[in-house]
Amino acid sequence: MTAKPPRSSDSALLLNNYDGAGSSMGSSKVRSYVRVDADKVRARSGREELHGRDVFVVPGDVTLGKSAKLGHR
Predict the structure, then answer these.
(1) Where in the sequence is the domain holding 65, given as residue range(s)?
(2) Does residue 67 form part of some domain?
């Protein structure tokens, strides 16, 4: 899960979320998002593990339920 806000540019989101593969992905990959309250999931920072990327690692499944909000950029 990314920690970048939805108002980030397409290129910033692609680079952060997909790292080196971001340049081969279309911007459609970052047009919509699901906002999840961080305190509703078991998340840990992925910054160190994923070489400075601004992401959270959530082990296992995420049940979105009422804690999630859909959005389009």
Answers:
(1) 10-72
(2) yes
Q: Which residues pair with 33 in a beta bridge?
A: 71
Whole-number Å distance between alpha carbons of 29 and 13: 9
Handedness of CA 41, 60, 31, 22 (dihedral sign): positive
Q: What does the alpha-carbon distance between residue 2 and residue 46 come to, in Å, rounded to a whole number?
A: 9
Residue 5 lies in a domain: no
pLDDT digits (tens, 9 = 90+) for 8-46: 998 888 888 887 676 677 788 888 888 887 777 888 888
Is this model's pTM higher than 0.70 or not?
Answer: no
Number of DSSP helices (H) and strands (E) in the chain, helices first:
1, 4
